[in-house]
Amino acid sequence: MIDNHSIAETEGQLSFDHAVIVVPSLETAIENFTTLGFQVQRGGANGPTHNALIYFSDGTYIELITPIHRSARIVFRTLHIAGLLGLLARRQPGVMARFVHWFGAPAGLCDWCIRCANLDKTIEDFRALGLKTSDAMKFSRKRPDGQVAKWRLAGPLDTSLPFLIEDTSPTQIRVPFEDNCNHPNGVTGVSALVLSGAAQAATVQSLQQLLPNTAAPDSTCTIGTVEIRSLTGNNTPTELTLELSSSGEVKGLLARDKTFGTQIVLV
User: At the topology level of CATH, where does 187-266 sit?
Assistant: First the structure.
C-alpha cells in the first residue's frame, strides 16, 4: 500500500525524487534489473531519449535512461573522450547543459534529483546561498498508455549538487507507484545516497543550509526520508552509491556487471 503522505507536498518542502542511471541499452537494462529482482516499468520517450523506471513504495524511484538511437550515444561518448563535450553543453539552454554530460560519461549512476513543492522558491533559496542555478524549463513525456506527464526542471550549475523538479501534472502521472512497486527482492525504497570524493563534503554542507532544521552531523543531511552522506579521503574515488531498504533475504552489494558499474547496496 502506498503512503500518500510520502508523495504529498506543501509549499517549501523538498524530498528525494529519483536517481539517474545512464545505460548503453534500455533493453539490456530492463533485463538486468529484472534479473536482480526489480519490477521495471517502461517510461516512454522524452525527446531523443527513452527510459525505464523502478518505483518504490516510499515515493522514490530509479530512472534508467539512454538515447533512443545508439548512434547518438556514440557521438556523445566520442565528444567526451575528445574533451569537446563541454562546447556542446555550453550551447544548450538552462538545465539541458547538464543532461548533455550524462550521455557522454561512462554508463552508471550519474545524477540525482530533488522534488520541490515550489520550484521557484527553491531556485531562490539556492541563489541566496550564492549557488548559480538555471531558470526553470518545462518538460513532458508521453507514457505508453497515452497519458502525458508534465513537469518543470532547474539545476545548479555545480553538477555535484542535485537538479530540481516540480510536477505540473499530478505526480502520480509521472510516477505511477500504484501496482508498480512490489519487487521480488523486497526493496521498498531508497534509504541513503552516499557521495564519495574529496569535493562531496561541500555538497552536503550546501544542502544542509537549505534544510536549517536538520540535526545531522556535518557529513550528513536528510532530504525527505533519504539520508545523504559524504565520504571523503585522499584515496576516495568520486562515486555515487545507492543504499536501498529491503525486507528480503538478499543483502549487500548487487552484481555491478548487472548495474552498469553502479554501486547499489541492499540494507
Answer: Immunoglobulin-like (2.60.40)
